[in-house]
Amino acid sequence: MSARHQRVVFILLGLAGLALACYLILSALGNNLSYFFSPSEVHAGQAPDNRTFRVGGMVRSGSIVRAQQDLSVRFVLTDFHQEIPVSYTGILPDLFAEGQGAIAQGRLNTEGVFLADEVLAKHDENYMPPEVAAALKAGEQARDHSGTNPQQAR
Description:
The chain is built from three helices and seven strands, in the order H-E-H-E-E-E-E-E-E-H. It is an alpha+beta fold and 154 residues long. It has two domains: 1-33; 36-146, CATH 2.40.50.140. It has a five-stranded mixed barrel with strand order 2-4-5-7-6. A hairpin with a 4-residue loop joins strand 4 (72-78) and strand 5 (83-89). The N and C termini lie far apart (80 Å).
């Protein structure tokens, strides 16, 4: 094989190695992405079935139920149009409370309960995650157009 052919083979192998490295990096990043959905989007079936995702909204007043024997807690997240029940086992953030914004990361089970691995709460009175603010605004607009309130339906 001539020196020119060796150089071409070496360059092609280098490009193939670079392409493989890029694919592996992008694949790893794609598997670790956690997309945000509002309760309305989850009810509409837009959330993935077999992947971890985030759901956020306001913690509905009167919905927090703590277990007596362990650190399990159940609560409801709402975007003022739809609601989603959340189950979490662990220590909640200090700022987690009813009527406050929260984001839960986890998966949806077959019964429609969101099984959270992590719960995040807003960190001061003036801040709300942009995703939660947009979801709440969309939920309020949908509620205003439909004239229904999910808490009145209970």
